DNA sequence: AGCATATGCCAACACTTGTTGACTTTTCGA
DNA sequence: TCGAAAAGTCAACAAGTGTTGGCATATGCT
């Protein structure tokens, strides 16, 4: 087995980094605080990750793992998508890290775009949906707005809504953005 | 007339502060940069506003000016509300300042809550809407999510969508959150 | 005009940040 | 067992931050 000890502190740093970045955002999360949480020296962070930016990049790494919607009837696609996103959001805080940071950090915003536009749009294209970009964007507004209000701004009662109720409310909205004809009078 | 000169620099500082806070967020917007934009000395900022936090508070001061929905038929309430919000959002950047900052600053988040929950909920209560808090929260998720994607994260094509198309897409969503019966199977 | 006051600038402070290099301790194979 | 490599510690750096006090200048009233 390769270096076990170093791998453990490496992981400890990453875990502490995710927590701090998620709670405080990029600027206010300091290397010193992250190191203190991981109970190691700040210099170790530099040794293992090179710089704060690289540490953030490592902490914000993640797969979107979009669900396969091909077998789902169009009318339920919204609910399936929302449920997937909410559960994904709940299970680890990587997406929260990214969202908090994307607001003030351009490279994080770029990654957010890749995820929500760059992955959703082609998926809709393949499903032969018209105006895939607009629909993907609209879905992103509702999904990210929900995450913002629930996890970051902590709006009650949104923050304490059960997953089921959230899905029941949001699902039809997403479905409509996915299936409704363009309502513009053009 | 009272001190004219000082009022002018006061306003210049405030304008520069709004721009910087809106573009960079609270932490990355420095007093020195704001002062440079206003073409004055950093010490002037302190003289006039006391501290960075107080300057931010002044820059983020604003009225929501919710439209009067009493004369509007329920089915069009969403469109009226969305149009009002988008236009409000477009005309000055105070709300953008607040949104960018609320993500990492607790007092800004608190003000955001006051605006979107504390003002919307009672308005719905007066209109005898059931579950006013949930509906206000849902509307906030869609409205803020749209603002986030359009102004902060700059998702295309959401960022360049015309007001009319945005209203046509989002309006029915808001109307549904305002009027639809609770879809939860409880 | 003369002076008090408002307005502005400069230099410096105390502090925090990311980052670095030299040094010590631990680990572990030959 | 010995010694090189890995892992960790410590102190300090250069830069940038909000903030302050002292000093110069301009303004406007009598």
TrEMBL record, chains A, B:
Pfam families: TetR_C_16, TetR_N
Domain of life per record: Bacteria
Name of the protein described by the UniProt record: TetR family transcriptional regulator
Keywords of this entry: DNA-binding
Keyword DNA-binding assigned: yes
DNA-binding region, residue range(s): 30-49
Domain HTH tetR-type: 7-67
GO MF annotations in UniProt: DNA-binding transcription factor activity; transcription cis-regulatory region binding
Taxonomic source organism: Kribbella sindirgiensis
Presence of keyword DNA-binding: yes
């Amino acid at each position: 087995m390769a270096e076990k000890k170093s791998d453990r502190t490496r992981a400890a740093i990453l875990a502490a980094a995710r927590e701090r970045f998620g709670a405080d955002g990029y600027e206010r999360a300091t290397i010193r605080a992250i190191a203190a949480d991981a109970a190691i020296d700040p210099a170790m962070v530099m040794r293992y990750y090179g710089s704060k930016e690289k540490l953030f990049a490592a902490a914000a790494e993640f797969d979107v793992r979009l669900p396969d919607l091909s077998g789902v009837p169009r009318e339920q696609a919204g609910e399936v998508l929302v449920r997937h996103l909410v559960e994904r959001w709940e299970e680890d805080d990587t997406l929260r890290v990214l969202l908090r940071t994307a607001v003030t950090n351009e490279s994080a915003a770029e990654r957010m775009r890749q995820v929500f536009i760059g992955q959703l749009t082609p998926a809709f294209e393949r499903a032969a949906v018209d105006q895939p970009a607009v629909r993907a964007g609209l879905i992103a507004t509702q999904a990210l707005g929900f995450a913002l209000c629930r996890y970051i701004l902590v709006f009650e009662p949104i923050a304490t809504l059960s997953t089921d109720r959230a899905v029941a409310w949001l699902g039809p909205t997403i479905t409509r953005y996915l299936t409704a004809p363009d309502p513009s009078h053009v």
